[in-house]
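OP here, attaching both records as promised.
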Amino acid sequence: EAADESNNDDWRKPLFYWKGKLKWSKEKENFTWGGSWHSAFAENGLPHPTDFESTKQSNGFQLKGTSTNTSDAKVHSNIMGALVLADEWILKGHYFLDQGDGPQKYRDKMHRLVFEKKKKYVLVGACGTTEFGNFVSAGYAEIPQSDDNEINFVLARRYIDENDTRNSLIKSGAKSVIEEYTEILSSSDNSNVDPTAAGNEFWIKLLPRTKY
């Protein structure tokens, strides 16, 4: 179910799910990520594929990720080695948002991201800031086959207010964000939380509405 801002006093209540294909280029030593985003409440879980398909024109995005230690990442011909090896990825590009006057192009002021391989998936933590405020993100990518240079990637963005304690994570960077996620998922209560499975636990556990 899409989030309807007209029925909510705070536009930060829903998550903003970004979904698309991530493509690694060994020659350029970077990746591109393109797709579309869709808003929904964490309790409802990941939106249906048709929701993302319906927003391709109005909510599309195209980003490029560059490693902060490119010289290390370039020695890997496969996508997994390159993504996980990097200390941090800096994302730049644009996305579209319609605020009543048609889709307009926007750019994040800062967007930082880290990948961490798990048994069944690749955990992703990210953070950044926009003209609308600060955000933290959690998501996952599929584990690629050895010869793949393209994977499916989902990242949910949680905008936070100025009093949220997660602002300190944003100042530290995406590595601090993913360290917090790893700690949450390592607890006995959350050991079976899997973003690739149906349900909403992953999004609720990692991206609560507020943390004060």
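Record two, same layout:
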Amino acid sequence: GVLALSHVGSPREAGRRCPSESVEPAAALPPPARRRTGTRAMCDSLSAAMARQCPPSCDVAAGAAPCRRACYSRVFGATWFGLALFLTLSVQGCITAESAGSGPNTDARAALAAQVEEMYSHAFGSYMKHAFPWDELRPLSCDGRRVRERGDLDAMLGNYSMTLIDALDSLAVFGRLSDLEMAVEHISSSVSFDLDLEVSTFEVNIRVLGGLLGGHLHAERLLEGYSGALLEKAVD
């Protein structure tokens, strides 16, 4: 629409191009209403809710503190009650679905869970077989990525077994405790962050630091004799 109007031009210009056609001037349009988004929209909604909840004698805008506090309490109380009711009903629905017993749906979910576990086993096993202890598996050449060769895409690499660190929590989720114990041993004894590298802060935070902290929490719960080596690496 914008392109078409810019091509034709205004009605006056169209009249100059085609003198045989009479073009009536377009009626003046009201300016478009400004959309209120984000915090402003939330404040407008809250003001409308307060106007409905508060008695006419309560001038919220005037700053009557006791009345304003009462209005806030009523509006926010109703809001939190509605949210709590929604969450309660959602949880009850999930519990009801889970307690429905065995059947086709249960079997289908078990089959999907087994498929996910098989895919994870294939991915992690391929990394350990072809790429460990490097950061990533190169799936076409089937070897480890040892150098940065893709520009900023490799900004998180540092030869600190990143995939192994990234997999610590999923090893716990899938119950692969022997692999988790091996990973903890390797990371605590062989991984070093004493490196002079420019890295992607975001990627290293969520994959390396997050992986170490998540792995530490799982190792404390699942591995006997674990002494906090992953937490020490996280601090390092």
